[in-house]
Amino acid sequence: MTHGSVVAREYGIPAVVGVHQATTRLATGQRIRLDGSTGVIEVLS
């Protein structure tokens, strides 16, 4: 994850990394919306 955040910063691309327990709180196939500018994750379905 560290490499991805560095690359995103250098290219000016918003990114969300290091979300606590994301792999246990989100299910495979679940739809979400990420706001890389604010870090907000919204579960859609």
Automatic annotation (TrEMBL):
Protein name per its UniProtKB record: PEP-utilising enzyme mobile domain-containing protein
InterPro entries, A to Z: PEP-util_enz_mobile_dom, PEP_Utilizing_Enz, Phosphohistidine_dom_sf
Annotated PANTHER family: PHOSPHOENOLPYRUVATE SYNTHASE-RELATED, PPDK_N DOMAIN-CONTAINING PROTEIN
Superkingdom of this protein's organism: Bacteria
Annotated SUPFAM superfamilies: Phosphohistidine domain
PEP-utilising enzyme mobile domain location: 2-39
Pfam families to which the protein is assigned, alphabetical: PEP-utilizers
GO-annotated molecular function: transferase activity, transferring phosphorus-containing groups
